[in-house]
């Protein structure tokens, strides 16, 4: 069988590099072209020497990537995806955006939280936002896929079963998330400088992070009512991983056993979501370098508050792995193709 030709725009960034790394082990695709603005003409292995002798492809430009690929991943900061999406759409190619340009259905939310506007409104109508475990049916005939944010992925997977069951008091949701430093990308930023974050631990963008409207849109869709949340992210001085801890009130007669039953039922056919046994707590080290998501459930019987802990690798299930999962479904490939790696213990 001919391999599908895939291109990666922005391959020198963390998300782009992770897509390349995963695609190199994918059984059904070949990487046709990769691009960079800053390093065009250089090999990706010159920037990332771990690829030496394994992958020696020369970086080209965006136009060549689009021209020679059937599927295009854009791994750029937000605000850059529309023109590339348009070219791909007009040529009938599958476009997958790693950034936020197609994630929010309401343009006013995008304006408010990202400070831009939708120039190509038709493209936004055609775009499909997809966390596969929650929205996979949307991918039938999709030509533009908005890959979800890393925090919203961990939070939505953690809360979906209890919201769908209608037993959560949606006015009480508090979310406390921690992300490894790769979440901030490769660009230089003071807060991810080694001496600034090592040995430290602090929240940032408290109740003002731009993932808030995305989280609320996904949760409202599942709960079938408007959900607002308090969301506080923290920077954790590790390379990879997200731990999201969600607090939500449930009725006094709800038991941990009943709630566990809801989660088991909801995720019974999902390969990548694992519900941990009673008493265990999810730990980011157990999902690193993999597409798995671990969920642990804890009911505080004194306060009738359900506490859900959800961990993912921000670079894999929170970015590149989920994008490949979405691509696989959209192309009719095996959903887990290229994503079956087992998490290492350390
Ligand atoms: N890191 C993560 O955990 C996640 C990231 N994402 C999203 O993926 C996208 C890429 O993120 P990430 O890889 O982390 O970011 P990086 O900063 O690591 O990489 C972005 C890359 O885009 C390229 N680029 C092209 N044009 C510009 C420009 N005008 N300004 C800056 N960079 C430009 C740069 O490469 P060059 O100069 O070589 O072209 C750069 O390396 C973002 O939209 C991000 O929000 C989504 C989920 C998780
Ligand atoms: C630690 C850290 O800085 N994390 C990033 C996560 C955002 C991200 O990665 O981008 P997406 O919106 O595409 O998911 C942040 O808080 O901005």
UniProtKB/TrEMBL annotation:
Any one annotated GO CC term: cytoplasm
Pathway: Amino-acid biosynthesis; L-arginine biosynthesis; N(2)-acetyl-L-ornithine from L-glutamate: step 3/4
One annotated GO biological process: L-arginine biosynthetic process
Domain Semialdehyde dehydrogenase NAD-binding: 5-142
Entry's localization field: Cytoplasm
Main location: cytoplasm
Catalytic activity: N-acetyl-L-glutamate 5-semialdehyde + phosphate + NADP(+) = N-acetyl-L-glutamyl 5-phosphate + NADPH + H(+)
Gene3D superfamilies in the record: Dihydrodipicolinate Reductase, domain 2 (3.30.360.10), NAD(P)-binding Rossmann-like Domain (3.40.50.720)
EC number: 1.2.1.38
InterPro entries xrefs: AGPR, AGPR_AS, AGPR_dimerisation_dom, AGPR_type-1, NAD(P)-bd_dom_sf, Semialdehyde_DH_NAD-bd
NCBIfam families linked to this entry: argC
Known role: Catalyzes the NADPH-dependent reduction of N-acetyl-5-glutamyl phosphate to yield N-acetyl-L-glutamate 5-semialdehyde.
Protein name: N-acetyl-gamma-glutamyl-phosphate reductase
Organism: Youxingia wuxianensis
């Amino acid at each position: 069988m001919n391999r599908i030709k895939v291109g990666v725009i922005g391959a020198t960034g963390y998300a782009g590099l992770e897509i390349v790394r995963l695609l190199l082990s994918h059984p059904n695709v070949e990487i046709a072209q990769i691009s960079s603005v800053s390093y065009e003409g250089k090999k990706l292995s010159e920037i990332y020497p771990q690829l030496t002798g394994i992958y020696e492809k020369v970086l080209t430009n965006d136009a060549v990537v689009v021209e020679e690929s059937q599927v295009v991943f854009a791994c750029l900061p937000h605000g850059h995806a529309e023109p590339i999406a348009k070219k791909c759409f007009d040529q009938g190619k599958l476009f997958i955006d790693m950034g936020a340009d197609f994630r929010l259905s309401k343009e006013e939310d995008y304006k408010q939280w990202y400070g831009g506007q939708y120039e190509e409104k038709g493209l936004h109508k055609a775009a499909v936002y997809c966390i596969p475990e929650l929205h996979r049916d949307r991918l039938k005939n999709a030509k533009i896929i908005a890959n979800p944010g890393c925090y919203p992925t961990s939070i939505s997977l953690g809360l979906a079963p209890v919201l769908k069951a209608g037993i959560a008091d949606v006015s009480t949701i508090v979310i406390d998330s921690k992300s490894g430093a790769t979440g901030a990308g490769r660009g230089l930023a003071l807060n991810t400088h080694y001496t600034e974050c090592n040995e430290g631990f602090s929240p940032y963008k408290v109740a003002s992070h731009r993932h808030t409207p995305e989280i609320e849109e996904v949760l409202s869709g599942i709960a079938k009512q408007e959900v607002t949340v308090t969301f506080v992210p923290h920077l954790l001085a590790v390379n990879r991983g997200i731990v999201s801890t969600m607090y939500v009130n449930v009725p006094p007669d709800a038991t941990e056993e009943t709630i566990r039953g809801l989660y088991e039922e909801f995720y019974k056919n999902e390969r990548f979501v694992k519900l941990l046994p009673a008493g265990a707590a999810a730990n980011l080290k157990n999902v690193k370098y993999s597409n798995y998501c671990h969920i642990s459930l804890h009911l505080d019987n004194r306060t009738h508050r359900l506490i859900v802990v959800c961990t993912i690798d921000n670079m894999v299930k929170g970015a590149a792995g989920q994008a490949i999962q979405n691509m696989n479904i959209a192309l009719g490939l095996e959903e887990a193709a290229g994503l079956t790696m087992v998490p290492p213990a350390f």
